Amino acid sequence: MAYYASHPVAGRHFLQIPGPTNVPDAVLRAMDNPTMDHRGPDFGQLGAQILLNLNKIFQTTGPVIVYPASGTGAWEAALVNTLSPGDAVLMCRTGWFATLWQEMAERLLLKPEFIETDWRRGADVPAIAEALSRDRSHRIKAVCVVHNETSTGCTSRIDEVRAAIDAAGHPALLMVDTISSLASIDYKHDAWQVDVTVAGSQKGLMLPPGLSFNAVSPKALAAAEHAKLPRSYWDWRPMLAANETGFFPYTPATNLLYALDTAVKMLLEEGLENVFSRHDRFAEATRRAVRAWGLEIQCLDPRHYSSSLTAVRMPPGHSADGLRATILGQSNMSLGNGLGPLRDQVFRIGHLGDLGPLSLIGTLGGVEMGLRAAGVPHKPGGVQSAIDFLAGNA
Length: 394
Ligand SMILES: Cc1ncc(COP(=O)(O)O)c(C=O)c1O
Hints:
42% of the residues lie in helices and 15% in strands. With 394 residues, the protein is α/β, with parallel strands linked by helices. The strands form 4 sheets. A 7-stranded mixed β-sheet has the order 2-10-9-8-5-3-4, sandwiched between helices. The chain has a 3-stranded antiparallel β-sheet with strand order 11-12-14. A hairpin with a 4-residue loop joins β6 and β7 (154-155). The two termini are 36 Å apart. The protein binds pyridoxal-5'-phosphate. Pyridoxal-5'-phosphate (PLP) binds at residues 19, 70-72, 97, 146, 150, 177, 179-180, 200, 209.
C-alpha cells in the first residue's frame, strides 16, 4: 500500500521536496528486520560501528550524538547543552529555518542578536565580523549559522565564518545547522572548528525522518560542564557515557539505526567526494534548466548556490502552489513549497539524497510539463540544457 496515492497515477511517486528524500530500497530493507534488544549483546556492536562511521560523515574525530528526534530536537540539544539563560547568541537570519532556530533560542530565554539578509544569499560574513569585533566584553556566547538554508537554496560559507571569528579573536562557540547539507555538500566539522554541528536523518543521509545528530567539539564539551539551561532528555553526558560501549541511555530508534548503518555504508562506498560532486553536478544541471526556461533562481550569489536544492521564483502573478498542484496531478511528483514570506512565490526542487541522472531528468521533465500545463510563461528547452550539461560532464 502506498500512503501517498491520493489519486491514481501509475509509476513511482517522485519525492523531489528538499527532504525528506527518497529512501533507497536497501535502506528500506534494512529497517524491515526484527527489532533487537537494545541492551543485549549484539546491540553494542551495531551502535559502535554506526558511531565510528558517523565520524567519517561529519569529518570529525570527536563524538557524534544520535537522538531519536527530528532535526528540531538537535537544534535544542545544541543550545541547552552549551548555554545559560540570558546568554547572547549571534544568529544569521538567512531564511525560514534560521528564523525558527532564532525563535527557539528566544523561547529558551537566550538573547538572540540577528544579522538580516534578503533571503537571496547566505550569511553576511562581514556583518558577523563586525558584530564580534564590537563585542569587546564577549557577551556573545555562540554564533549560529544554517549551512544550507532549505527555504531559499542558499548556502553559507562556514570556512569564512570560522575565519571571521578567528580574526576577531572572539571565544564564541560556532554552531552550524547542516540538516539539509550533511552528506550532500562538503562539510568539515573538525577542519572548520565547528563546536556543535546539528544534522537530521531525512535528507542527505537518505533515511526516513526520526533521527538527529550533534557532532561536538572539545570546546563545546567544556562549555557543557558550566551551561545552566535546564536539560534532561537532550543532555550529552549520559549519552556519551553510554556510547562508550555502543549503547544509549534510553531506548534508541533501533530500526532507524539499522537503516542508518546501511545508508552510511552506502555513502562511504560511493565515497564522500563522489557524493558531493554528484550533488554539485545535478545542481548545476538544474540551474541550467531554470535559466533556459527563463525563470529566476532565488539565490543571487553563485558562491552561495546550494547543491541540495534550487528554489525557483515564479513570474509575477503566477502561483507556485498552483504549479505544484498541477505537477502533482499530472506527474505524481512533489516539489517543495515557498515558506514564510516566500509562500506561493517560489517552488523548490530537491536534488539531494538517493538521486541518479535519470531521476533528475525525470524531475526536470515533470517541471517543464507542469509549466506548460499551468500556463506559466517560460521558454522550452530546460530539460535539453540539463541533458547537454550532464552528457558533456558524464
Ligand atoms: C535547515 C533546516 N533546519 C532545521 C529543520 C527542522 O528539522 P525537522 O523538521 O527535522 O525538525 C529543517 C527541516 O527541513 C531544515 O531544513
